[in-house]
Amino acid sequence: MVDTLPDTSPGAFTFRAIFTGSVLSLCLACGAPYGNMVIRGSYMALDFSTPGAIFLLFFLVGPINLIAGAIHRPFALGRRELLLVYVMLITSSAIATMGLSEYLLTIITGVQYYATPENEWAILIEPHIPAWIVPQDPRAITWFYEGLPAGMPLPWGVWVAPLCCWAILVSSLYLVMISSMVILRRQWVERERLIFPIAQVPLEMVQGPTPGVRPFFSNPVMWAGFAVPAIVSSLNGLHAYYNFVPAVQLLTTIPVFRRAVNLIIRLSFPMVGFSFLINLDIAFSLWFFNLLATGLRGVMRVLGYVSAEKLGVFGAAWEPILAHQGQGALFVLVLFGLWVARPHLRDVWRKAVHGDAEVDDSGEIMSYRAALLCLAGGYVILAGWLTMSGLDLWAAVVTLTMALLIFVGLTRVVAESGVAAVVSPLIAASTLVSASGSVVLGPSGLVGLAYTHVWAADIRTFVMASCAHSLKLSEHMGRNLRPLFWVLLLAILISLVSSLCTILYLAYEYGGINLNSWFFGGGTRAPFDFIAEKLKTPTDPSLEGWVNTALGGGFMTLLMFARHHLLWWPLHPIGYTVSMVWLMDQLWFSIFLAWLLKLVTIKYGGPNLYQWTRPFFLGLIAGQFVIAGLWLLIDALTGMTDNVVFWI
Fold it and tell me: Is this structure's pTM higher than 0.90?
């Protein structure tokens, strides 16, 4: 396939680019919930890797642009326009499923539906739920989980009032996320030069003619990499239809430490691809620290040294000692990054408050003054919303601050390390309950914390990370970037409205409990199981939690000191930050494999061989995401369900 992009790219913010991005964002926001609820196939909007966005961009840049250009060359979208479409897609992807929508509708109805005499939620939790935060019609909630009776119209009106209240929180949260990334963009992109590995695939796809470089779609090395996951996933997809077709196993486990823990060996083609793009020391640290954490878990279990603290199910909460240490490391990562960014943050303050002419913010999607006002205003609204939901003001401020630190920390991890599937060691709600004890929070405060799980618990993707990558890509969109802010808001609005409407329709049509067992089952009950336990058995502040958080933060500080003062030091601190979380247990082998391949490539072939092999690993990423999307379409046409050819 020849390069389909014109030599002279038009501006990014054309009507046709915004229209195309809006239509595709709508398709993604409706299609992703349908895919993981009705078809129950591969997840296309679950993680920071945004498979659905890359799937759609692949066909837009390739065959669609090829046909458009063949008809009339100016019909083909230019590079800047294509990047704008992709920015809208990754923003939409961060909301449609795991990022917000599938948790919002289920958690705000979970207590009413799953309350039983055995769990006592009706006594412990329901009296403390603010009426404005949840739907009030018991029949509509029952039908949401069990399906609408024949001939009954869908009860849209029941949802209007609570969703409008939640819209205040969500819009404020997204403004805070966008404005914080605007403030940090120059520090991360221009001063520290983070590599943003996840952004490399779309950049390569839309790359125009470059001397000495073969275009993405006409590079045979890329297609060789593309073929590997395409063949493997197709065999696994066909196996679901015809059992005589052999399935390719990409996962095995090895029991270690007297079977106290399992060493997971999983081959993830996209993770191999992303990890090949990052620095060797980061890749080494990611898998090394995870193996170290696995070893520590094994030793502690063999010796019987385990914590009895209950922190919920998210992150690394099932191993409280390591979870607290990882949380301490994550907080130090963020605070140290802000400390290093002091000169830049002073510039932002001078420009925003004093209008310093020496500080130029014309290249940002919003002025520093507007960003600071949005950040402060959004923070105040969020704190007020949380207070109205039941939290005391101090608890609301602490919860919100910790949640934002976690968001910034994970965004930094993804931007620097390229780990496309990662979560925080602990969530804000669990951290607060451990640090302060449940007694001081009271029943209303604990119930308010339960509802923070909608947006601050299972955070495998969120708008802040998508915005950070969008701002990185904006370097290639021209000089006037102010319209990008409004484009991001448009993508958020499209994704939010369309995904919520789609999920409501599917739940009432099929019955939510017949759709996705996690979002309509375990994920819905988890916040209230956690809170109900604290209401039944109140806890005091956990000294163990404080000590382990301090230990993790202290060790992270030493790692950062060594990194910045010892030239020979081989370990990058970012690997320790997320080494304890369960997703890294799944991904460590793929990262190790990419590290080994890159080490051998550079050692024996140098930069030239690395540049020659790089398209192969980009092909691994594109091939996996494209074939996963194609199998979803095939399964939708044939009626096949539960044919998962790709997970992480």
Answer: yes
